[in-house]
Design goal:
about 140 residues, alpha+beta, CBS-domain, two-stranded antiparallel sheet, 5 helices, 4 strands, about 20% strand, CBS domain, CBS domain-containing protein, CBS_dom, Diverse_CBS-Domain
Length: about 140
Amino acid sequence: MATVSEIMRHSLPLLRAEMSITEALDKLLASELSGLPVVDSQRQIIGFLSEQDCIPKLINASYHCDNRVTVNDLMRKDPLTVTPDADVFELARTMGGAKPKLYPVVEESKVIGIVTRHQVMIFLNKQLQNCSISY
């Protein structure tokens, strides 16, 4: 069984709930990911900030130059996560629906990485290329 730990990205910036949204967006945009986990001081996941969640809420804040907005104001407080030992094929089935495009990877509630739909697609493509199909 292929596991998430085999395909996940181990290095990623983490956000804090009290962080200003401008600082968080700088980290998010530099990461080239569509979202980042929000953690407490022990790296335990407490939320998730995605581009999709940000845009509607930032329209008003940016129009009125309201830079008092924090990550806590915009983050999703019930993030979906996966464990490093999760089956990649099961995750692929989940991602094929309306679920998120990326998942924080957590072990004992601590963020240890992230797995994206793109990484899952690369894995599935490699699997397919390794198949020996005879007609």
